[in-house]
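User: Okay, second chain of the day. Same drill as before: sequence in, structure tokens out.
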Amino acid sequence: MMPYTFQPNNLTARTLRLGYKAELKDSYIELFAQLVKTQMPQFPESLSSYFAGLPVESYNGFFSFIYHKSIELLEESRFDETSRFLQLLTEPKMLNAIGLVHAGSINKEIRELIYEECSNSTYSISIGTLDPEIEAAVYRRLAFGRAVLTHAHPELAQEIDELVQSVTFFVSGRDNKHKAFSVTSNRTQGLILINGDVDPSWIFLLDKWVHEAAHTYLFAINLSEELVLNDEHEGFSSPLRQDKRTMLGVYHATFVIQRLILAFSAIVEKSDMGDDDHQKISKLLANYYSRLEDGISTVRQYGDLTALGRHLIEEGYQYTQEINRPPRSITM
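Assistant: Same drill. Structure tokens below.
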């Protein structure tokens, strides 16, 4: 078993990334082996050969999403749609969808399908394409935030760059009920989406980058190792949401908070910034420390964790208690 730790490790991150990409490629090859046998014209052997010939690194988060969507469509015998989306992945723009990816550079059908999936999720959120001018500005601000984190905690920034290879922005519903701030899932491994319209500050954008990267780390581990054994139908209070979540969801939220404390504590300690930014980060840290206590309490009381799951969450909690807490006089 890999030596998974709460503290970032670049070698571990790279091994996880290459592992899930290799697994995804193998899944595509197995899928096409079955499709070619059907001799349906929608799935020619040339298409199968194309995917088999791609290097492992080409299998980015968009490929992950389309693979899972294809399985769903095939189960409903929607062969033409499946073929269409697989064909769209052969466009050069989809192979090059790495780094800060402008929405306009993503195939429109794939982009809208991802938005639709998010909008029809359990949380009934609304997602759409961000205005290009706003998008360009938030890309610059996120790049600045990433540079700040790289200076303050280079190991964490390097880990995130290994695990999160594609970032794109969106606009979400104007009311909180239908608004998403950032999105990722085990179906889009390596791809995260951030709301670029709600708050253009580098602090907010960096917060969401670190947040979704923490989920990505746990998703990658979960491909081979169990962390939480609770029944998926059990609901518990979550430190980051008002609705009940599964224990895995509460575990993820608690780990995310710990990683956010790791990131922003390092920035406060090692980066020069103005009073406004310092105050904003101090408020964030105070908020996260408060929510962390709720999360760790729920996980400890109700969580049926594996040894690895308990090790990761307790290591993270111990770290947060060893560093300086934010002043309690800060008002929220």
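The CA atoms of residues 100 and 139 lie 7 Å apart.

User: Thanks, on to the next one.
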